[in-house]
Amino acid sequence: MNRINLGIIQVNHDKSVEVGDAFPDDAHRFRDLFDQQEQRFNYRVYMTIGGELPKSIDEQDAFLITGSPLSVLDKHIFTDGLIDFIKRCDAAAKPLMGSCFGHQIIALALGGKVERSTAGFNVGIEHTHFHVMRHWMQPACESLPMHVFHEDQVTELPPGCELLGSSENCRIASFAKGNHIFTTQSHPEFTHPFMTCCLDYMEDQLAPDTMRRARECLTSDSEGRIFAEWCTQFFKGH
Fold first, then answer.
1. Structural domain boundaries, residue 184
2. Choosing from 161, 170, 189, 231, which is the catalytic residue?
């Protein structure tokens, strides 16, 4: 079986002792998720905090942009370069997947809109209900429960993009463009222990009701592994 060369563009550079030092980083969490599958990958991680981005879209077979506690509404050292990279991937129909921050910055780069939610943080496990099933979304599931942790959200789709899924608190929870862009507002790579750690760390920054609901959600299962299978089929399609 040929390996997929996957470039993971890491935009989370959390250095906190409580979270960043306590768990593997985003790139490792995605690697752990994908490595549960029969399909094998070769990974290359790009650390954007040092200004590191792929020099060419042809360096890898496909790319993935991670989530981050950073806001896409702020300007970061890598923002302009990453937006340019996304536009080049789009123009060349290079397979690109985005999760949370990745989902949002792809939307921004392609002409969509991201805003801060007036309802505050959306945290816990939330079902994404899929209105449209693309050919790579196998095994087919009309609804997937996955971890969420975000305050910003996509409020307007970029031109030429199709809404795939919505959740109770996020209308644009997943979208696609052609067969080369695929996104989710969720965190398929999160685990219950990692989410618990994040909640403990954010205890004094989240509203009590938000915290209570988020902790109650952790009695439910998350199906990030199914979304990972969809991503693999998406990558293999190219």
1. 4-236
2. 189
